[in-house]
Amino acid sequence: MSERRSRDLVGWFRAQAAWRRAVLLRRAVAAALALLAVVLAVRPAGTGTTDVVVVARDVAPGSVLTVADLAVRGWPSEIVPAGVVGAVDAAAGRVAAGALRTGEPVTDLRLAGPALAAAATGIADAAAVPVRLADPDVAALLTPGTRVDVITGGGAVLAESAVVLTVLDPATGPPGSAARGRSALVALPRERATRVAAASLSEEVAVTLRSHS
After folding, report:
1. Which of 67, 86, 110 finishes a domain?
2. C-alpha distances in Å from residue 39, one per residue of 26, 32, 79, 183
3. Could you tell me if 124 and 192 lie in one domain?
4. Residue 6: which domain range?
5. CATH label of the domain that carries residue 62
6. What pLDDT band is residue 179 in, cutting at 50, 70 and 90?
7. In this structure, are 140 and 84 located in the same domain?
8. Cα angle, residue 174 at apex, residues 170 and 178 outer, rounded to 5°
9. Total domain count for the chain?
10. What is the pTM of this model?
11. pLDDT tens-digit profile of 26-59?
12. 75 near 106, Cβ under 8 Å?
């Protein structure tokens, strides 16, 4: 084989190798771009953050929230729960309807108030009212969602089928709780709540548990 023929063959093989490398490189780049497109397509679009009030330390049910119990954290906007409280001042002084865990977002249904009363009773204008319990031992039988009848010491029925929201803690409940003793916060239609509240100011009342049937 002549020297010229040999040089031509070497050049041809080099060209073939270069072409194959170029093809492989283009395929690799194309695959990388395709993968990037898939990642960008499935990645959720960033929607920023929203300030959310969360519990800074564990809180017992029936306790009044203080500023020290609360903190503000930025949450991804797409996972912020409905009814969340956006400012510490809006939650401080409110009563925790149930036990709250550290880091939990504070929503309107975790606080005793109109929103929880409406959700518990299914009545839009329901109100939450505290009732002093004539028998403190009954408090141990009351849990959120329990339905009770509220009666006076003389046996007069003030309200039927009230929904217990929480039992107020005398030590950490609203001002005056310790002096009043054990109280329960119940949800009622507004007109009945007004009557129960008026009676509870002057006397202790009794509650009787209703049958689940």
Report:
1. 110
2. 20, 11, 21, 56
3. yes
4. 1-43
5. 3.90.1210.10
6. very low
7. no
8. 30
9. 3
10. 0.66
11. 555 445 445 544 544 554 555 688 999 999 999 9
12. no
